[in-house]
Amino acid sequence: MSRIRFENVYKSFSDVKALSDVTFEVSEGSSTGILGPNGSGKTTLMKILTGLLRPDSGRVSVNDISVLINPKEAMKHVGSLIEQPEFYTYLSGYETLEFACRIRDLGKEETKNEITRVSKLTGCFDYLQRRTGGYSRGMKQRLGLSIALAGDPEILVLDEPTFGLDPKGMKELGDLILDMRKTKTILFSTHLLNEARSLCDRIIIMENGHMKYDSKDDPSAKILRIKIFGRINNIPELSSFGSYSLTEDSILINKKEEIDNYEIIDMLVSNGIKIDMVEDFDTLSAKYLAVVEKGS
Fold first, then answer.
1. What is the dihedral of CA 4, 42, 13, 79, to 10 degrees?
2. Does 142 share its domain with 60?
3. Cα atoms found within 13 Å of the Cα of residue 39, Cβ hemisphere only
4. How far apart are CA 248 and CA 237, in angstroms?
5. How far apart are alpha carbons 173 and 122 in whole angstroms?
6. What stretches of the chain show up as alpha helix (H) in DSSP?
7. CA distance 100 to 267
8. Please, are residues 146 and 119 in contact by the beta-carbon 8 Å criterion?
9. CA distances from 226 to 58, 235, 241, 249 (A)
10. In this structure, which of 39, 64, 180, 181 has its CB flanked by the most CB atoms within 10 Å?
11. Which domain holds residue 226?
């Protein structure tokens, strides 16, 4: 089932073409990353999806509900974090989250429980009583993500969610996204290659408002390299995931279309295999640089 759909979307600002003929769908239960340098159109795309901007032409829908015709109904299914979040500086983090829960039509007791749940998930629980005017960039980012998660929406739209976080925070948020992939549909943007590679089962590269690459259409993108701690031994049968081969320290899997990376990793870990690294066998960095350098 398609949760998000862009159809022939165009957007310009004066004489600058921000988006040109963007068309793709995000299916249920997937994690899709929009990868591209600054100015490639990532944030414009996110703003159009969440109703903050209107396209010049084209159609955008969430769960088959038009964002342009019925944005309020469409956004009931979406939690979003767009650009760098800012808040009323005189409100505390708790009050800010409380307001977000009210918008989601949560009751008083449900709001209290939800604030505790999402703030602990994102790591901002300990400073909720402080006014947001004193928050660091990383603290604001965590609070903004908490707001996106409030009400437990089925779809998450995250625009560079790790911006402003230190390496520890980036790792924690990455782990959270990996966990949420089991139950939610996620669309997020990033300019970090490693982040896109580790958190996405599909990657779209944008440059100057154009879609330049979609891993869904690239057979080589389905080849996964899983590097193992130590030597390869006692590897369980993996043919249900696709054809595979072994090197001295890695497993190479040519995945079947419907297989998610998490399924393979979960199966190996449950069989006692210690994983060092997971990556596309073909180098995403080479594809990214080829797109960006050609565009420049």
1. 50
2. yes
3. 6
4. 17
5. 7
6. 42-49, 71-75, 93-103, 108-122, 137-149, 167-180, 193-199, 261-270, 284-295
7. 38
8. yes
9. 40, 12, 13, 9
10. 181
11. 219-295
For the chain, the C-alpha Rg in angstroms (whole number) is 20
Beta carbons of 54 and 147 less than 8 angstroms apart = no
Is residue 261 exposed (0-12), middle (13-18) or buried (19+ Cβ within 10 Å)?
A: buried
Looking at the DSSP assignment, which residues form a beta bridge with residue 204?
34, 214
Does residue 253 share a domain with residue 173? no
Across the 296 residues of the chain, what is the mean pLDDT of every consecutive 10-residue run? 93 93 93 90 95 96 96 94 91 96 92 96 94 93 94 94 85 87 91 84 92 82 79 81 83 81 86 83 72 63
Domain tally, the chain:
2
pTM tops 0.90: no
Based on the fold, state whether residues 280 and 200 are members of the same structural domain.
no
Domain co-membership, 171 together with 223: no
The total of other beta-carbon atoms located within 10 Å of residue 154's CB is 16
Residue 205 has what DSSP assignment? E
> 182 and 129, same structural domain?
yes
Kindly state whether residues 286 and 224 are assigned to the same domain. yes
Report d(CA 157, CA 151) in Å as an integer. Answer: 14
Q: Name the amino acid, one letter, at 10.
A: Y
